[in-house]
Amino acid sequence: MNTNKILMLMKMAFDGDVMKGLYRTYNILKEDKNFNMIKFVTMMTNMLKGEKILKHEGQYILSTFMPPFPSESFYTNIMAVKEPKDIFTQQSFAKRSAPISIYLSVTHKCPNNCLYCSADNKQDERELTTEEWIRVIKDLQDMNTSIIGLTGGEPMIREDIFGLVEAIDKRSTAILFTSGLNLTLEKARELKRRGLFSIGISLDSHDRKIHNKNRRDDRAFDRALQAMQNAKEAGLYTMAQTVILKEHLQEEELFKLFRLAKENGAHEVKILEPILSGSLLKEENLDKILYDGASRKKLMEIQHKANRRREFPKISTFAYTESEEKFGCGAGAQHSYVSAGGHLYPCDFIPMSFGNVTERSIKELWQEMSAAIGTPKIGCFAQKINRRVYQASEGKLPLNKKQSEEICLENRSSTFPQYYKSLQ
Known about the structure:
Elements (H helix, E strand, L loop, with lengths): L2 H11 L2 H14 L7 H12 L5 E3 L2 E3 L10 H7 L8 H6 L8 E5 L24 H13 L4 E5 L9 H6 L6 E6 L6 H9 L4 E5 L5 H8 L4 H14 L3 E7 L7 H13 L4 E5 L20 H14 L7 E4 H4 L13 E4 L5 E2 L16 H12 L7 H13 L7 H10 L7 H6 L1
Helix pairs in contact: 8-10
GO biological process, one term: heme biosynthetic process
Pfam families: Radical_SAM, SPASM
GO molecular function: catalytic activity; iron-sulfur cluster binding; metal ion binding
């Protein structure tokens, strides 16, 4: 029994804002004849399944896959459907008007040269201007995109980063992903003032040598720790973004990382596995880097064990989030990505271009992409198809739209992840 989670649920039960948020959500969904109180409880319970709940500045982090609750961005996500009726049914079958989250790579420039960087091979001729990014952000919010992340490369390199954050209004949760470069306390406070809710800072190990080796930068470790301290002091929801290679997947070592992250201000440690993308597509021996099924199972066991312990931050993993028992892989359906040059990808790690946002509206491009992708998939889509994508492109990425659609249509899923099955 997870006593910490029970205590947090009891706290939520006596929180007036939570009760108002549940009532508002219920009223949005109740017009659907397929919706009832049992389905409502099932939906909320499944969001919480396997998660450690945290409270940050009056809002609860149920899952970082979802916006915080209660918030305007949470209701934005509920309303992100194609038709203004039968909202619950559309959500149950993942028929969306927009992704839950989208990451905008505002620059491909970065001081690091990471072994597993997904940005490698992206052939962008130029980066979008401030005005172009602001237009994209407005279009995304009008589509009801509930989480907008600014990433790179290194987004803190851009001089207009504060203006880009400010362009994201309260309809969406604003997140920024950084190596920690240039994140002084003053800049962290300014990001918070402009509307940033959360920040993800790269930290791959408790061991300085391992982190710096992964990042190929001797200053990366110290920079990351200082950035986390600054972010926490500025009032940002602070995450340590962690890529763990298969050979480093050891409980004792990860627990050391969790303690280090907590000591330096992290509310959450978010663990990503290396993806067969970017520079890894050129590597031959990946046995010590890429996960297999046993590795993912081991990581999920570590996650759930750690989340029962009070001294650790919240632990989340893509291995669990993308599994059949949770939300599945949302590439192109629940999550999407725009490259620094404006190409719309299914996700950060799948180098398929479904068009450029400087040439056509992202709303049209996203609808075409999601139609080809279909429903959320069981397991990481990038791991399944990226070898073929690389071969089809003859090494010249991103793959063009016609070939991308062909691969997606051939790999559509007929099985929904458990979150959706339980609502259907």
